[in-house]
Every structure is written in structure tokens, then in C-alpha cells.
Write a structure and sequence with these properties.
Elements (H helix, E strand, L loop, with lengths): L1 H25 L6 E6 L5 E6 L4 E4 L5 E9 L5 H11 E8 L2 E8 L12 E7 L5 E6 L4 E4 L2 E8 L4 E4 L2 E8 L4 E14 L4 E14 L4 E14 L4 E14 L4 E16 L3 E5 L5 E6 L2 E3 L6 E5 L3 E6 L4 E7 L2 E6 L1
Parallel strand pairs: 2-6, 2-8, 3-7, 3-9, 8-10, 9-11, 10-12, 11-13, 12-13, 13-14, 14-15, 15-16, 16-17, 17-18, 17-23, 18-24, 19-23, 20-24
Antiparallel strand pairs: 1-4, 4-7, 5-6, 19-22, 21-22
Length: 327
């Protein structure tokens, strides 16, 4: 019995040691490299990596911080450092007010033996900075930043929150989320959905392969998709929305100059009641209530006329059914 007990304890100690050694070797949640700079000296950020994600946050105190995360399967830090030194150029510096963080493969490294690394940047700077972020293999995340923002990724999603001024973001292979932002906003994806919330300004959001959802938009929204549905709620201002491959549900909170909608599926439009409109609606089938103060022509496929003295241009086209209501 005593021998069995000793053997049992020995096994437990061995398992505990192996797990601890593995965790210490991988160190997955700790940055591989950390660099600090005076935050007041940085007015611009340029970050480029070919195999990882980039996170930019305008939450720095007196120190701007760049954290570098490097991974490859279950490699140890020693193995990662060896491959990094031999096959990559990693550059982190501040030059004339610009924070530069660059990770790229050396020209003579072709990754024949599957030794490519995922190199990601997590950058904390002051809120007011211009930025240019580029990655071909990961996501982009921007929070609490004001300035001119350009971001491009070929293989990941994009998230931008609590930011403003001039935002231009593109991805070829992921979804886009933008919330609590303002200014001139341009969002483009070739392979994912778009989710917008609490935006103000001039917004252009387009996707070739996903759905579009927007809530509480104030300003001018131009949006479209070739392969999904469109759902817009709480829109104040102008809207121009199209879809070639799905249904559309649009609820206008307060209309300004125009509402322009076009799709190949069913379309539901809710407008504020008691306002003046100029209506031009065409569909294969139209469902609409008796409209007060309407002058013009209306049948089961179209409406052409004005409510009151005319006002906001409502231009709707659908190859299927349109349902128009006033609330």
C-alpha cells in the first residue's frame, strides 16, 4: 500500500511539472517584446505585418506602448526567437513624430519548411493620432482614436469603435463592425458582413458577399451588398441602400432630403407619419395603407405622387413585394 501511495504521488508531481513547463514554454498570453515611448512625441502611427493582427487604442497615459505577440503552433520562445532573427526584420521606432512598427519576412526567406510566424502588434497611443495599418493575414481593431485612419487587411475582420474624423478601412476576407463613431467613414469588404451602430456623419459601407445591419445612424448612409440582406433601423438623415441578393427592411426615424432603396427581394419600408414626401415606388406587388393628403397615382404595383406639399424624395425599386407603412 505504501509503495502504491508513493507511486501515485510521483505521478501527480510529474504531471504537474510537465503542465507547468509547457505553460512556461508557450507563454501565449504574454507579449514577446514590449517597447515604450513618450506618448506626447507621437502624432502618427504606421504599422505593417504580413502574418498577424493589429490593435490600435487611443488610451495611453504618459507612455505609448507597443506590444509584439509572436506565435507558431506550440513552439517555445527560444525557437520563435531563432526563426525571427534568421528570417524576419522587426522594426519598432519613432521617427519625426511617427511611430513605426514593421514585421516582414526577409527577401531570401520563402517559408518552404512551414516556419512562418504570426506577428501581431498591440499599440497604445494618445487619442489624437493619424494611422496607417496594414496586414495580409490578420484582423484590425481600432478603439478611441481621432484622426485620419487608413486600414487594410487581406485576410481578417475589422472592428472600429469610439473613433472619429476620417476613417477608411478595407478587408478582402472578413466582416466589418463599426460602432460609436463619427465623421467621414468608408468601409469595404469583399467577403463578409457589415454591422453598424451609433454612427454620425457621411458613411459609405459596402460588401460583395454578406449582409448589412445598421442601427441608429445620423447623417448620410450609402450602403450596398451583392449577396445578402439589408436591415436598417433608426435612420436619421439620408439613405441610399441596394442589394442584389436579399430582402430589405428599412425603418426611418427622421428623413432629410432622400431615401433611395433598390433590391431583388421583398422590401419593407417604415416612414414617420405626418410628414411631407414625394413618392416614387415601383414593385411587382405593393402593399400600402390609405395615405392622407396624397395627390397622384397609386395602384397595386406603384405609387407616384406627393403627400402634402411634397418633401423628402422616396424612391423605391423592387422586383418583388414592397410593403410601405407610416408610423
Amino acid at each position: 500500500m505504501k509503495k502504491q501511495f508513493v507511486l501515485f504521488v510521483s505521478i501527480l508531481l510529474c504531471v504537474s511539472y510537465c503542465v507547468t513547463a509547457k505553460n512556461q514554454g508557450s507563454n501565449e498570453n504574454a507579449p514577446f517584446i514590449t517597447r515604450e515611448f513618450p506618448a506626447s512625441s507621437i502624432k502618427e502611427v504606421g504599422a505593417t505585418t504580413s502574418g498577424g493582427s493589429i490593435t490600435l487604442a487611443g488610451d495611453a497615459g504618459s507612455k505609448a506602448v507597443v506590444e509584439v505577440y509572436i506565435s507558431h503552433d506550440n513552439w517555445s520562445n527560444e525557437k520563435i526567437k531563432q526563426v525571427l532573427d534568421e528570417n524576419y526584420t522587426l522594426d519598432i521606432k519613432v521617427v519625426n513624430g511617427k511611430l513605426v512598427a514593421t514585421a516582414k519576412q526577409k527577401t531570401n526567406f520563402f517559408n518552404w519548411d512551414n516556419q512562418g510566424l504570426s506577428i501581431s502588434f498591440k499599440i497604445s497611443v494618445s487619442k489624437q493620432v493619424d494611422s496607417n495599418l496594414q496586414t495580409s493575414g490578420g484582423s484590425l481593431s481600432i478603439d478611441n482614436v481621432s484622426g485620419s485612419m487608413v486600414g487594410v487587411t487581406s485576410g481578417g475582420s475589422i472592428s472600429v469603435t469610439n473613433s472619429k474624423d476620417n476613417i477608411d478601412l478595407k478587408t478582402s476576407g472578413g466582416s466589418i463592425t463599426a460602432k460609436d463613431c463619427g465623421g467621414k467613414i468608408s468601409l469595404n469588404t469583399s467577403g463578409g458582413s457589415i454591422n453598424l451602430g451609433n454612427l454620425a456623419g457621411n458613411i459609405n459601407a459596402r460588401t460583395s458577399g454578406g449582409s448589412i445591419m445598421a442601427d441608429n445612424i445620423n447623417g448620410t448612409l450609402v450602403t450596398g451588398t451583392s449577396g445578402g440582406s439589408v436591415k436598417l433601423n433608426g435612420i436619421s438623415g439620408n439613405v441610399d441602400a441596394t442589394t442584389s441578393g436579399g430582402n430589405m427592411d428599412v425603418r426611418i426615424k427622421s428623413a432629410s432630403d432622400y431615401v433611395k432603396l433598390s433590391n431583388s427581394g421583398s422590401l419593407n419600408l417604415v416612414l414617420p407619419d405626418g410628414k411631407n414626401y414625394s413618392l416614387n415606388v415601383k414593385a411587382s406587388r405593393l402593399e400600402a395603407p390609405v395615405i392622407k393628403n396624397f395627390q397622384g397615382r397609386m395602384d397595386n404595383k406603384s405609387i407616384n405622387g406627393t403627400i402634402g406639399n411634397g418633401g423628402t424624395d422616396i424612391n423605391v425599386r423592387s422586383s418583388q413585394q414592397v410593403t410601405l407603412t407610416f408610423e
